[in-house]
Amino acid sequence: MFSFNYKEEHDLDAALKRYFPEGIDIYFENVGGKMLDVVLFNMRNHGRIVGALGVGINYFEEGDLHQVVAWIKRIFRFDKTGCGVTLDPKVTGNLIFCIDIATRLVNSQLMGLRKSVCIARLHSAVPGVAKVSRTLEMLTGVLLQRPLRQLHIRTIYESNLMEYDADKHVVVFWISYEADTYVMTLWV
């Protein structure tokens, strides 16, 4: 397996020929656009393009993500579908659903780094933006969670303030964390 940062390459076609002189065997596609156009001309004979479907979801109440996966399978008439990530209730986000042969990649979605932008409303005003910022920066490290009566040990790597509105008691921040961390429960 090999990857490169396409944003650092000025000529994608030349980069693909340089990195994959015999052509590309397998390409995972979930965006389309210019990269896909160039990849198509650099595929090896009998190479495969594995696709994924991204779905924006407003997940307002407790529900079963497996049901959403089943709906996608039925609506689009796919043989196989899978999703390796979840959203907390009352969260809006984009989920990647793997289809057909791409379902082999579902477990890889369960590991790794996630980043989210979060909005929190505080019970009362906090004197000074510096204190809010310092408090958010302290919310890192190992985290023990028990979402479905099973202990999960997860890590929050970084937490940084983006904006604080003292009048409305609203904090906007971003965090990076281990996949499958129940982020919403940090603030309850």
Tags for this model:
tRNA_PsdUridine_synth_B_fam, Alpha-Beta Plaits, 188 residues, 2 domains, pseudouridine synthase activity, extended, 5 helices, RNA binding, four-stranded antiparallel sheet, alpha+beta, Pseudouridine synthase II N-terminal domain-containing protein, four-stranded mixed sheet
List the helices and strands and how they pair.
Elements lengths: L11 H8 L4 E6 L4 H7 L2 E17 L5 H12 L4 E2 L8 E9 L6 H4 L3 E9 L7 H10 L2 E5 L6 E14 L4 E9 L10
Parallel strand pairs: 1-2
Antiparallel strand pairs: 2-4, 3-4, 5-8, 6-7, 7-8
Short synopsis of the structure:
InterPro entries: NAD(P)-bd_dom_sf (IPR036291), PsdUridine_synth_cat_dom_sf (IPR020103), PsdUridine_synth_N (IPR002501), tRNA_PsdUridine_synth_B_fam (IPR004802). Helices cover 22% and strands 38% of the residues.
How does this structure look, described?
The chain has 2 domains: 110 residues, no CATH class; 74 residues, 2-Layer Sandwich (Alpha-Beta Plaits), CATH 3.30.70.3190. Helices cover 22% and strands 38% of the residues. It has 5 helices and 8 strands; from the N terminus they run αβαβαββαβαβββ. The strands form 2 sheets. The protein has a 4-stranded mixed sheet with strand order 1-2-4-3. Strand 1, helix 2 and strand 2 form a beta-alpha-beta unit. The longest helix has 12 residues. The chain starts with 11 loop residues before the first helix and ends in a 10-residue tail after the last strand.
Low-confidence stretches: none
Quaternary state, please? single chain
What string gives the helices and strands in order? Answer: HEHEHEEHEHEEE
Number of strands: 8
Helix count equals 5
Q: Report how far the terminal alpha carbons are from each other.
A: 41 Å
Total individual domains: 2
Let me know the largest β-sheet: 4 strands, mixed
State Rg.
21 Å
Strand order of the largest sheet: 1-2-4-3
Give the class from helix and strand content and strand pairing.
alpha+beta
> What is the mean predicted local confidence, pLDDT?
77
Overall geometry comes to extended
Work out the strand percent. Answer: 35-45%
Q: Provide the helix percentage.
A: 10-25%
